[in-house]
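Record 1 of the preview.
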Amino acid sequence: MQQFGNAMYLSDPQSPAVLAAIAELQQGTALSREAAIDAIARLARESPASGRSLLVYARLMFWGYLTPERAADELAGCLSANAFLSRRVFERQELAACFGVSLLKHLTSLSAQECVDQFDFSETSPLAAAPEQDTDETWCFVPPASGFFSVVETILLAQFLCKWHKKTFALDPRYGTWWRYPVAFPELFSHRFPTHVDNKKPVKQLPWPVVMSSFQTLPSGLFKEAAAFKRREYAYLRTLLSDWLRDSGERCEDLSGAAIFFIRGGDKLVLETIPAPDSVVRDDFQTLARISTRFVVLSDDYQLAQSFADAHGLDRADNLTQANANGYFVHHQCSIDDVRAIVRNFLLLASATYSMSCPSSNLVNAAHWSSPVLRDTHSLKSTPLLCYL
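->
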C-alpha cells in the first residue's frame, strides 16, 4: 500500500458547511442529498487550492454520488495546475486516486505522466540530488509522543529526510520523553535506529513539525525513492517485531490466502471526513469473501469488529480480535499485553493476502508497506487510495 498519509486527516478545522452537507448526504432524502452535493460542489469551486471540500467532492465522485462528466463540467476552469500542485502531497495523492488520470489531466492541463506521478510510486529511481549543504552534520530527531506505529512512521520519515539532505541521522536517546509504552523501545527494535552523536560534528535538533513540512514539499520525483526506502525498512521492522513476539512466548497465525479488514477504534471513528456508503463497503466485503480462502475482521475493539461483520452479512468472517480488547490503545495507559496485541494485529494484517483496511491508521499503513503481497491487493472501492494498486 504505497501511501504516505491520508489527506482526509488534516489539522485544519472542518468547514461547518461541509459537515452539514455530509450529514445530509448520510441521513437526508434523495432531494436533500442532491442539494448537499450541490453545496459541496460550490465550496470545492471556491477553494480549489485549499480546504477539504474538494477532497470530499472527489470522494463523492469516486463512490458514484456524481459522474465524472458532471465533475468535469462543475470544476472546469477552477482547478489549474498551480492550484493542484500547491496542495500538500497527501492531498494531491488522494485527488489523483479519486479523479483518475483522465479527469485530472482534463481539469489541470497536467500531462498524463505528471498525473500518474502523483500516486504511482511503484518504481524506484535514483536518489535526487540533495541541496548543497554541509555533509559533516548530524540531525538529531525527537519523535512526537504518539501512537506505537505513529512513532515508527515519524522516525522513518526523518531518516529519509536526512538521507536526502546527506546528513547523519541520530534518534534522540531520551526514550522516556517520547516513548510511553511499557516495553523499552530498544527491546522492540534492537537498536535499529542509531542514537550515537559524534561530538566532533555539529549537531542540529530536528523537530517533528520540520520533518512533516519538509516531507510534504519534497519534489514529486523523489517519492519513488522514498517508497523504496519505506518498503525496505518496514520489511526489516516486521522481522524484528515477529522475533520479539515469538520470544515473548506468543505465536502469530499466518493468514496467507486470507482477506482482512482492520478497523481502528477511538479517534479514527470520528476523524474521517466522509466514510464510504454502506453499499460500497458491503460490496467490497463480499468481493473479498469470494476470492479469498478466509475472511478476517480485526480491530483493537472486539465488539466493534463483530458489529462490522454482523452488519455486512459476513457469515463466514472470523473475528480474530482478542475478546478482552475494548478500544484504541492509549499509549500512556498501555500494559505489556496491550503492546503484544498491537504487534500481533500488525503481524496478522501483514501476513494476509488481501486487505481493504484504510491506511489512515499507521498500524495498517506499516503492515501494507511491509508486505509485497498486500501492495498488490484486489482493486476495491471503499478506500480511494486502494484503486491504483
